[in-house]
## 1
Amino acid sequence: MNGTLALAMAEIRRLRRNRRYLILTIGFPVLLYLIVGKSDTTAYGVAFKAFYMVSMATFGALSGAFNNNTIRISQERKEGWIRQLRLTPLPANAYVGAKLIASMVTSVPAIVIVFLLGHFYGGVDMQAWKWIVIGVAIWFGTFIFAALAVAIGYRISPDSVQPVSMIIFFAFSIFGGLWFPLSGGLQGFAKFTPTYQVAKISTDVLGTGNFQAVNVIGLVAWLAIFLGLAVLAVRSTAETM
Amino acid sequence: MATHNGGPIVTFDNVSKHYGSLKAVDGLSLELRAGETVAILGPNGAGKSTSLDMLLALRKPTSGRIKAFGSDPYHAVKSGRVGAMLQSGGLMPEVTVRELVTLVSGFHPRPVPPETVMKRAGISEIAEQRVDRLSGGQTQRVRFALAIAGESELIVLDEPTTAMDVESRQLFWANMKAEVAEGRTVLFATHYLEEADHAADRILVINRGRLLADGTPDEIKQRAGARRLSFRLEQVDEPFLLQLPGLVNLEIRGDLVYIQAADSDAALYAVLDAGYRPREIEVTSLGLEQAFLAITSQDNEANGGPASASSATMSKESI
């Protein structure tokens, strides 16, 4: 476990130095919120500035955990860093473990910074527990997407991993209603996406102050599915590293 | 190391690895003893890398058993008793050399201090440079540093000096000798014959996934008929020549006869004793390279394989 933590620390150090990552996870959501966050309309029956804060925090944290990991893992597999690690006393699952831990840690500032912006710039105000529940829901969503990123990074070559992960992520973002509230037939379909579960829990907490167990179950189910895919991907590529 | 008392630290017991119909490794059996420096010598595609991959738990044998330090390869590697440097090993980008060496040395149950590792690998001057901004030779040295970052008892190297210039190659083996002097066992794959000759005290010749010869560099040369006898002889009697003692290879071009035999003197006496009086007798000494070619080409001919193709690869690369 110590080795896994040491590797996770190294991963975090790398991410801190990576300008692209910082722009994608923090710079981009902050900029968008500054531009459109102060609108006085409503979405999902809650104030738009609050909805958009949640939406941007989710977008930044999830895209950081997802896009960054798919690309890194695919490249590190191709270049042989994963193979190199397998030659050390580090346990076989430490690489994936460290990636997940690093994603969970680095998503915290991405969420917190947008929340601070929402509070002080957008004027979003609510009880402490609501901030925490929404933050945890997004954070859990990050874990789900980090797991999916492992499955994709292990399967897809560096040449095509960028467009593939972009398409998958945009599809989940749009159908999950992260960018704008969905309506009609699309919403029926969207209800099953992991991003929708995060958005639903958040907007429920913002609006009624209650969230539904079905959405929590949905999140856990998606986590189980993506972790399962990740384990399969790691196992089936073990001999071709 | 003392726990092994001269018994083998690594054992391959009839190990095979098949990819579909391709037999990359085909019934390989061998043993490594503590303190040896052993070269696995063979042409490209002989099964060297696959064998090392299996020893390092990167691949599983199709059949047969590998034991290292009394356990399976995975646990041997994870216990820190084996350090390795492979051709395909990549490095973590965006960190400095020092950070990377410190990280990997920290994974070991018996770590070597990072400063010592970097000094041994000759990378102290580039400690603060970023790993992704190094030259090919520097990258290779960093990979070597990662292989010796723990107090491993066995170091496995897959073609360690590929892409190195002559000077770095010499420096590399000088460093390696220092590691061996500490009592480590070294197993390395190479297709550079002089490298096997100079660096190893034992050579395993592998071709088509099978072990063809196992011995000291001198024994390998001997085994292959390290001297070549040639002469001119009218009315060559091929069946007679084929029965010469210790014959390794026979070639007849018109009245010119080339003979490789374990003992060239004995072969010549046999020719003379049979009443022949050949002219223009010459005995030339062959290097390890020709010895190696002789061993692998016999094997390829005996198995209907592409003798010329693999010989051509060998000679091109070893020159």
## 2
Amino acid sequence: MQVDSAPVIRASDLKKHFHDSKRGVVRAVDGVSLECNQGEVFGILGANGAGKTTLLRMLSTILKPTSGTATIAGWSITEQPDKVRSSIGFMSTTTGLYARLTAREMISYIGSLYGMSGRELKAKVDEEISLLQITEFQDRLCDKLSTGQKQRVSLARTVLHDPQVLFFDEPTAGLDVVASKTIMEFIEQKRDQGKTIVFSTHIMSEAERLCNRIAVIHNGKVAAVGTFGELREMTGEERLDHVFLKLIERAEAAA
Amino acid sequence: MKGWTQVWRKEIREFTRDRRVMMSAVFGPLFMELLIMMLFGYIGTQVSSEKAQKILVQNPQHGGRALAALRNSKDQKFEIENLPEGMTPEEALNQKKGRAVISFPDDFDVKYGNDSPPEVKVFVDPHEATGDLAFGAIAKVLGEQISQYTQQYLQSKAIDLRRLVPFVFKKQDIKAAKPVGGDIFASFLPYLVILFAFYGGFSIVGDLVAGEKERGSLETLLISPISRTAIAFGKFAALATVSLTGCVSALVGVFLPGILHLRATEKLFSGGFAIAPSSVFALIITVLPLVVFFSGCLLAVSCYARTQREVQGYLSLMSFVVLIPAVFSQVIGLTDLGSSRWISFVPILNSARVIREALLNKVDWTNLAITGSLGIFLAAVSLYLAVRMFQKESVLLRV
């Protein structure tokens, strides 16, 4: 696989602080800077509560950063959020579908939100339905679909507008092996098509299989960034789970 | 605002497939109103029909001319039975043997027309409306007999009755605008219109934003290129459509029997069925802002809540704010408050009054102008609030 060196995602000192009545100021993301290149699968590895989802939500303009900035495909997440949103697709396991729409209606609806209509919309929907093997259940209500079928519909609506950047937030959490395999293969396919993919997970094997580079996040900060080989060198460990734990320990000690 | 129609269309498509919405906004109001109308029609028929009043008589053998007058009355119908032996009037009434018990003293015939007139007692249960009805009918018949006797007596003494009466009076109805259907509409319809403007969207409001938070489908919307204002407006428009459908269904349910001339409700529409264009205009000016106002408030609640269950909790409290003025609006026509200008400045109550005036075909343009303006202002505020809520990430993404 070939990785273009031009950074498609540039984040600079991104911070997101929340005020919590019990815990005071919560620094969910605390000065994250990173770059992702075209055709790269960039992994974000971290324990639960490390700040992965908040980081992805800021990059995808769902949340506004407290400070710092980022650009996606050249668009600023704070200045041009609508342009950013046109350039990205976002999927997580928790992303739901509309129970009373059919699979086809669900995908078409999302397409219409991206400004598609008429023949163009129908052609794109037909294409994704065929590619993701949704044809058989395209007219079934989403409520009646199996988990695997729902995942396919979710994937279709994520890529329908052919975004340059794809965000996957723990996309396989809670899924069985077969459903996970579909998603992993889908990500590989998109990577091979030259899409930039940000993949957040806490499953080491998935990160190892998919990611060109990995950022280890701990307490809202980047503990380390590099290829799997570079991270191994940094820690002197072989297995990724050991690498991860060592980096976390170091980050704790430095804090 | 580009894209709000897509959101609106999708929400409406989902609503049409949701049985709860069809029940709460279409079939519920329609059939409930039809049922209420049938019920009112039945009650109206029963009250106005000349059904015999069942009365019991104690000492009928002494009833003489008074009892004969009751038996032979043409204006009032009575079903007269003797009080069962050994039973007191109180026992008979408590056991619902009759609506009233009339008791003649043993010396009734002897003292009839004497210097010390005999006392006839009419026993009724003060907590039963039927008792009052029966007493009214008895009083009318016996009163006429007393009046006839008095006239005959005065004539026999060569005294002109008119010399004893300082003045006479009688009830004279004025020529007023004909109410829509009948007076009964003006008393309960405003209440129903307001209720359905609020409750029409009740079943789906939880689904609109809080439900999306729960399902995790909100993210999909938030990362689409259409603005949050457009998303919020699309959802608001869908909610307003459902609430308005609830109102219209309720109105159709009320007017349908009048249009179809259903026999069960013909008493309610005995005065005919006509609504003036000014009344239709007043209804539109009042109902539309009301629907917008309620929809904005409901959507703001759905934005704020974390879950659908939380939405229902807030709405239960909010219901009282709507119900109290709505209930008060039902009786306001019976008081002097009904014509006070300040009521035009009380939300919900002012709408109820304008709807009432419209149904009586007596639109007060000043009341309508104040109510309409205030309604539009409040509608704009609630819509603004809902849109603002939808843009606030601390509210929208709180889980």
